[in-house]
Structures are given as C-alpha cells and as structure tokens.
C-alpha cells in the first residue's frame, strides 16, 4: 500500500473517531429540557398561544434525529381555550437525507391526541395563524430560499396513531361533530410508493347527522411532484360505514374497488366499483341493494366522460310490501363535442301480499343520449306509473328531455308533460295535467309550470337560491279555482272526537296523549317570499272567493302581510305571524283579523264548530299565543276581540217565552235551570260586545243586545282552553207586544231578569234566577204601594190645610180632628 494512501486512511479514521466522539459528547451533554422555557416564550410571543409541556423532552441525533414529547397542550389563538393536546408523540427523522434537501421520516407515532378545528362561513379558521408564513411578507424571502424549500422531498417510513379525537365545526362544509381515530397504521408514504393503510375509527356528527363506525383498508399510492398538486390513488379499497346517518337507521354501507384522483388535471377515475347498502328509512328496510360501475372516468381538463356498465339495484321491505328497482346504463362516452352512448332503462315496483294488497309499478326509458361535454341531452325520457290497492288507484305518465351539465353540475327538465289520474273511495276523482320546465344546479333552481286540476287552470313560477346554508325561495301560484276537497277525506259520521260536554281527563292535558303537538321547526328549513291567489278556494269547511296570500319567511319566522278574501257572506283581511323556537314551548303565533258584513253563525261554525250565535256585521281580533301543542295554544291565548252584529240571535233559549211564564216561576220562588235546545233562540235587532283575553280566558263587561221588548247586558267569561262558558246576562223588559202574553209581560216592565249561562260549549245550561226577579217585583210593588198611599195622604193633608179655622171661645163645641195629623197617620198606617 502506498505510504500516502495509508496515511490518508489513518487521518480519515482519526477524523471519524473525533466526529463520533464529539457527537457522543454533544448528545450526552445536551439537555433539550433546558429550552422548554424558550420554546414556550417563543410560542406565546410569535403565535399568541399558550404552550404547556408537562412531560420530559427526549432527543437523539445519530443515526437519526428523534424527538419524543409527553403531556403537551396548546391553547387557541389569543385565548385560554384548549386547541390541541397529546399524551405522547414520537418523531424520527433520518439525518443524512436532510443534507440532500430530502425529508425522510422514519416513524411518526402519537397517542391521546385531542384537536379542535373551527372554520366560519367566511373561511376563517383557528389554524390560520399556525399556517401563516414566518416572514412578515413571504414575497420578501430570497428566491434561493424559496427554490431550496420547493426542492424538499417527503418520505415517511410509517405512521402509527391511536386514540385521536378531532372536534370539527366547519361552516363552509357544513360539518359539526367529532371524528375518532382508534388506530391508523400505514407503510411507507413517499412519491411513487405504494403502501398499505389500515384505519379504524368513528364519526359522531351533528351535521350531517351521522353516528357510524368507519373501517378502511387498501393500498395507497401517492404522486408528489414538486411543481404540481399531489395525486392519490387507492387500490383494493375496502370501506365500511356501520351505524346510523343520512336519515337512515341501521346503516351498513360497504364500498370496494379502486379510486384515483389526479391533482394535475382534476380527473377522477373509478374501476370495478361496488357499493352495497342496507338500512331502514321511512319504514322501508333496504337489503342487498347495490350500485356497480365497471369503470368511470371524469376528466374536465380533456372535456371527457367515459362510463361503462352502470347497474343499480334496490331491494327492500316495508311490512308486507316488497320493493324492487333497477336502472341500467350500459355505456356513455363523451370527448369534447363528440358524444355517443346507450339509452337508459329502468323500473321500480312496490308489491304487497293479500287479495287487496297495494301494487305500484314504475317504468322509465329514454332514447340514446346526444350533445357535448358541456351539455349532455337525454331525449325522450318517459316515465309511466300504474298503481292500485285498497280501492285506490293512480295512473299516469310523464315525458321530458333531460339535460345534464357536468361542470358545474346542473340538471334541466325541458318540455315536461305530466298526466296523472287519482281515484280514492273516500275522495272525489282527481285529474292533474302539468306542462313546463325546471332546472337545478348546485347554487340555484327555478321552475315554471302551467296546468289544470280537474279542468281548473293554474300556473306557478319560482326560483331558489341554494348557495346559502338556508335556501331562499321566491314562489308564486295562481289558481282559477282550487278545491282541496280532493285531498281531504270526509270524517265518518259521529267520528269527530270532542272534549266538550265532559270533564277533561289527563289525556287531554298539554303534552299528553290526547293533545295534538305543534312543531314549527319546519319554518327554519327555508327563507323566502310567497304569493298565492285563487279565484275560488275550497278547503272544507272553508269556502273563500278572491283568496289572496302574501307572506315572507326568514330566520324561522313566517310573516303573513295579507290574508284576504270573501267568505261567510262578507270580506275579511288578516295579518299573522308564526315563530319557531328551539324550545317548542316558546313557539309564538299572532293573528290580527278584521272581517266585515260576515255571517257570524257561518264564521263560528267553520272556525270553532260553534252554533250559538247568529247575526251579520263586523268582527275584529288581535290575539297572540305560544306553546308546543293545541291545548297550550288555547291556554296561552291573549289579546282583544270585538263584534257588532245586526239582526242577530242567541240560540239555545227563547227568552221571551221563558219570561211569559214568570208568574208560576215567581210563585215557586225557585231558580229554573234549562238545558240549551238548538231549535230555540232569542232574536235581537243588534248585538255588540268586546273581549279582553288573558291566559286563554275571554272576559266581557259591555254586552249590549237590543230587541223590540228587551235590553240585555251582562258580564262573564269564556274559557277557551277548557271550552266552557260562565256568563251572567241581565235582561230588562222595555216594551210589551199586543199579542198573546203581552199583558203578562207588562208586570215585568223595568224588572231585571238575571240569566246565568254555564257549561261546556256544546251543552250550555241556562238558569233564570227567578228568586232575584221575585225580590225585584216585591220591591217594585212596595214602592208603587207606598207611592199611591203617599199620594192619597198628601191629598188629605192639602185638603185639611185649605179648611176654616175654629171660632174663638167655642170651647164647649166638640173638638174637630186635625187634618195634618190625620193625613200623616194614614201615610204611616196609623
């Protein structure tokens, strides 16, 4: 060996020994825990976050750089709330590749990790400060540094994560909930490498509603070019989702096949894709339902779509009914303006068991598609429907031209024509004819239809803004006549439930089984403006002419600015509002009504099923209520109401006939109770009253009813919540008729006759308080007797004062009576 070579080797050996010795001394003497305070201060000053490191920091340098941490927590930006924490973490990085601008990570392991991620509707998140560049302006960094940073390569030998929880609230994506990672293990992750991936976790989301276990496995391939977005591919993919979510109970979804995403072009590819789904929704249990696609390529950069063998099959059961559906699309190939493919074909059926079982058959087919990448047309799309069961039937068909725009995704139905015929033994026959068009995309939708319902014409137009969290809808509808009798079955005779006329039981209390709940949360689903017009509107028992409705809906509050029309022989105009609330008991409804020239009997009969009052005139009300059920709405009702009627009557009692029997009743000196009878009534030329309503109880103090021989006033209450009345009417006879009984009533002229009305609305009892009448008559007769006697005595007094005085000295003559003394004695009965 040459001397120079031997000496060089010895020198190199000595140098390596010195380096090893120096590294060993550095590792042995360096304590990273001394720098905890510096790191905590740097995070506080540069990131405005609080960093806490409760455990020791471990560090090794060679042959790899390895860092271990324990008991670490990090706060939110400029706040004490926790952002992230970890129980233990390890990071090992190879040293030598760093010298070549390559990041080769041997191992990443962590456990007990907790992370909170939030992003508002503006796209601002709680990690923006962590992702911000260190320099004040990244453009000021030297170009060489940017180039060197861009050349850094990523290579991870493996990742092991366990017990990780991420609480996510992303208003942009509409996600709110928690993701749990039980285990995540990968092989090598690097550019061009293929690695096995095993993931077991759970999604517990409020929005969208999802609580399901997630199991993922497959081969992951990464393409990480330095000058282009990353690409990712999955082969031997196996993904399962088990739990409940997407409004499906007992969800079990399993996806297999291969998926790939090209970051350069944005292309998506799927091969041998198969999705198996089972679950329960709306009472239907899906079993062995499957979607299969041999291959699908969507490449927007090349304006290309390639689909082969799409096959959809659904199978399920609902009670005794069996569901079966299929859709087949053999092929579709689009390249730019060139398009070729096969026609669509499918069917669906719902079949029951038994002689009177329901059967529904749907069929659809189309012609071969045409068009281009931007506009795929499926002409001649035809859907037929044929169903029967339980005496009911539906038959019809629809035809349209379907247009699909892939990017951005939009669907349009052009030249739509629909014909449907419905038959139901409990309803009148109904025939619907519709023509028009509709379209919908990711951001908006619109429609315009004309049609007839049983030869009654209508049209409707509208649009919807779908870009917001809550869709905004603008809709208008006009009907020449709309008879909703076709949609409302008539109740069987005697089948109408009522709580009137009996003592309420626990089932009728708010929130109990006998009560009807009210949930206005549906008002929060959309916002918008709505307009409705109908020449004639029939909704049993209501019949309205020239019906008009204008309403707005925003933030869960419906405001009806106009509800007007002609009904009950007159006109009405109303304003109303309904406000949803998270606490259903806080739901609120208000109504303001002004009705003129209306038939009060027809109005009360339709609205409240009451037949106690007749007359025509004006009715007004301004009321509000709140609650979670019908009973609570009645019990919380408050506000004011008033009425002024002419040519009216109160049904249930003939007061004139009752008063004609006063002699026998007064002789008995006993109050008489009479049950209301529908065939009897008391007529009045005019009736007016106002009501102050609080807690479901309407109180009145100013009743004024007039007839040719009666004046009636009174006061009392109407308990709307309990459907009861407790009212004291006071009738006064003012004149007598010349006919039969007129002379009998003459004695009651000026006498007040109290009549107590009490009981449930449908069984009011009338009690005439004859004892009070008798007392009034006695007082009246006594007053008349005293008056007549006083008049006679006073005449005697005046006569005595006008006589001659006796002569002086005639003491021997008989003494004469003093006229004044005699008159007073007669006055007082002495």
Structural notes for this entry:
- This protein is α+β, with helices and mostly antiparallel strands and 830 residues long.
- It is 15% helix and 55% strand.
- The protein is built from eleven helices and 44 strands.
- The chain has a 44-stranded mixed beta sheet that branches.
- α10 (770-801) runs antiparallel to α11 (819-827).
- The longest helix has 32 residues, at 770-801.
- It starts with a helix and ends with a helix.
- Mean pLDDT is 81; it is low at 1-9, 14-20, 134-151, 493-511, 803-813, 815-821 and 823-830.
List keywords for this structure.
single chain, 830 residues, alpha+beta, 44 strands, disordered N terminus, disordered C terminus
List the helices and strands and how they pair.
Blueprint: H1 3-29, H2 36-47, E1 51-53, E2 58-60, E3 64-75, E4 82-94, E5 102-119, H3 128-131, H4 143-150, E6 153-156, E7 159-170, E8 175-186, E9 189-190, E10 194-207, E11 210-223, E12 231-245, E13 248-262, E14 267-281, E15 284-299, E16 304-318, E17 321-335, E18 338-341, E19 345-351, E20 359-365, E21 370-371, E22 376-389, E23 392-405, E24 410-424, E25 427-441, E26 444-453, E27 456-465, E28 472-479, E29 482-483, E30 527-539, E31 542-554, E32 557-567, E33 570-579, E34 588-599, H5 600-608, E35 613-626, H6 630-635, E36 638-652, H7 655-660, H8 662-668, E37 672-675, E38 677-694, E39 697-700, E40 704-706, E41 710-719, E42 724-733, H9 742-746, E43 752-760, E44 765-768, H10 770-801, H11 819-827
Parallel strand pairs: 5-6, 5-7, 28-30, 29-30
Antiparallel strand pairs: 1-3, 2-3, 3-4, 4-5, 6-9, 7-8, 8-10, 10-11, 11-12, 12-13, 13-14, 14-15, 15-16, 16-17, 17-18, 17-19, 19-20, 20-22, 21-22, 22-23, 23-24, 24-25, 25-26, 26-27, 27-28, 30-31, 31-32, 32-33, 33-34, 34-35, 35-36, 36-38, 37-44, 38-39, 38-40, 39-41, 40-41, 41-42, 42-43, 43-44
